[in-house]
Amino acid sequence: MAAAADPADPADPADAAQDGRPEPRHGWRIFIIWLVAAAIADPLLWFVLGPHMPPGDMSTSASSQQFDMNVMTVMAAPVMLGVLVYGVYAMIVWRAREGDEEDGPPIHGNARIQVSWLAVTSALVLGLFVFGFYELAAPAGAGAGEGPSPIWTPGGQPLQVQVIAQQWEFTYRFPQFGGFETPQIELPVGQNVEFHVTSLDVIHSFWAYQLGVKADANPDVDNVAFTKPKQTGPFTVRCAELCGLWHGAMFDYGKVVSVAAFQTWAHSMRTHLAAVTRMLPAYALTYDPTLVPTINKALAKGGITGANGYYYPPNDPEQP
Amino acid sequence: MTLRARVSTLLAAFVVVVALVVFIVIHFLLGGPPVENFTAGVTPDTGATVHVMMQEDPQNSVSSHPDWVSYFIKSPTTGAWVHTTLFSVPAGSKIDMTILGYDGCTPLRNPVFGQVTGTTGGVEYVNGKPVSQINSWTGCTVGHTFSIPQLGVNVPMASPSLTADLCGNSPCTSGPREVVRFSFMTPRAGGSFIWQCRVPCGGGFLDGFGGPMQTIGFMTGSITVVQ
C-alpha cells in the first residue's frame, strides 16, 4: 500500500538509497546526453546554418570571416549545450519531491570534475586563442593584410580603390584610371582589390558588409584593406563610426560586375569625369583638407594675401 | 514626518517630474524649425513644376546664433523668408529651385563637389548662365553647396566677389548676391531625404565642421517627398 501511495522513482537518489539500490551514474548520463546533443547540433550548425552566417561569401575576406564565425559557433555550441543539459537534468532528477524537506547532502567539491572542467575549458579557450591569432596573421587575415602598414599583400597588381570619407558620403577614386572620383563604386569579380581608406574630416569607418571589408577612415591616415570579390551582385556600404548629425544616412550601394563590364564602366567614367578630375588634387594616399595649394592665387585675385595656403590654419578658427 | 507632509512631498515630486517630461517633449522633441509645405494644390506623380526659393546668408541675425551662416526658405503661403531648412514637396514632380547666394566664398573640402550632378541637364544656371562645374580652389567662387546625397543632387552655390561688402542682416534683402537656378525630379516613391552643405562653413569650430554644419535650420535639413 505504501508503495502504491508513494511510488519509488528509480532516478531519485533518496528512493534509491531507501531501496538499497546503487546511486545512478549521473555523470555518465549527463555526458551521454550532452554527447548526443552536441553530435547532432554541431553538424547542423556547420552544414545548415554555416552557409548563411554573416557576412556571407561574396569575397575572399567575407568567406574567411564566415569560416571563423562557423568555427567559433561549432566550438561554443557544445559548451552551451553542456550547461543546458546539466541544468535541465538537475531540474528533473534532483528536484525536491513533494513533502521532502530534507537538506541536500553536504558536498565539498569533486576533484575529478573540477580538474576536468578546468582542463576542457582551458583547452577550448587556448585553442580558440591560437586559432584567432593564426587567422589574424595568416595571409589575407585581418591582422596581416589590413591597416596602415599591412605585412601581407596579395601580389600582382590589385585594382586600387581609394575610399574618401567625408560628412556624410563616401567617394571613390580610381588612380589606375586617371584618378577619377565618383560616389559610385563598381568592382570586377575575381580580381584582387586594394582599398586605401582615408577621411577628409572626422573619423568614419568604411564597411562594405557583403565584401567583409571594414576599415576605419581617419584623417591623414591611409588604411589599407584587401579583398577579392567572388560573386557578382550588389553590396552595401555603410559608415560604421558615429560621425555626426547624418551618420545614419551615410550609406550607398556598390556592384560587383564582370571584368569586361567593370573595364567599360571605368573607362566611361574616366572620360565622362575628365573635366572634374582636372579640378582634383593629384592622387595621394592622404589629403590635408585644410590646405588648398592654389588658395593664395585665388585670394590674391581678390586682393587678399597672407593665407599661406591654409583656409583653416591650425590657429584659426579657435578651437571651441 | 506627518502623513500630510509625506503626501505633499510625493505630489510635489510627481508634478516636477511630469513638468520635466512635458518640457522635454515640447522643447526638444516637438521643437525645431517649421516645415514649409510646397505640396498644396499639386498632384503627385504628374511631373508638375514646383517652385522653391531659398537664400544663404553670411549670418543669421534672427536666431540665437547670429554669427552662424544659414539658409532661409521663402514661405509658399506668406512669401516671407522663414528660418528653416525643412520643406516638403510632392513626389514625381519637378522641383525648380532658386537660391540667392549672399555669402562669400570658402573653398570646398573636396573639390569633386564643385561638379553639378543630379539636376535637369546636369547644369545649374548662375545669373542665367548654364554651368556644369565650379572650381572652388582656383577661383574661390563657391559659397556653399545644396546637396541631396541620396538623390545624387549636388549643386555648388556661386558666391559674390571676395571683396564685396556682404549683407549684414538676415534675411538678406540687399547686398551683392549670385542667383543660382536649377531643377531636379523628386522620386515617385516618396520618402525623407537629407540635404546638406558640403563647404566647411562652421566658422569658429574645428576645421569649420561644427555649429551650423551640424544643426537643422542652418546649413542642413531634410526634404519630405510626399506621395
Structural class of chain A: alpha+beta
What's the total helix number of chain A? 8
Order of helices and strands of chain A: HHHHHEEEEEEEEEEEHHH
Task: Supply the number of helical segments of chain B.
Answer: 1
Ends distance of chain A: 89 Å
Helix fraction bin of chain A = 25-40%
Biggest β-sheet of chain A: count, sense, barrel?
Answer: 6 strands, mixed
Overall mean pLDDT of chain B: 91
Q: Would you write up a description of this structure?
A:
- The complex is a heterodimer of chains A (320) and B (227).
- Chain A has 320 residues and is of the alpha+beta class.
- In chain A, 38% of the residues lie in helices and 18% in strands.
- Chain A has 8 helices and 11 strands.
- Chain A has a 6-stranded mixed beta sheet. In chain A, strands 5-11-10-7-8 form a 5-stranded mixed beta sheet.
- Chain B has one helix at residues 3-29, and strands at 35-37, 49-57, 70-74, 81-82, 86-90, 94-101, 124-126, 129-131, 142-148, 153-158, 178-185, 191-196, 220-226.
- Chain B is globular and about 80 Å long.
- Chain B is mainly β and 227 residues long.
- Classes of the chains: A alpha+beta (320), B mainly beta (227).
- The A-B interface holds A 164, 166-169, 171, 181, 183, 200-202, 244-246, 249, 273, 275-276, 279-281, 289-290, 292-295, 297-299, 301-304, 311-312, 317-320 and B 106-107, 109-112, 114-115, 132-133, 135, 137-140, 149-150, 152, 161-163, 194, 196, 198, 200, 203-210, 213-216, 220.
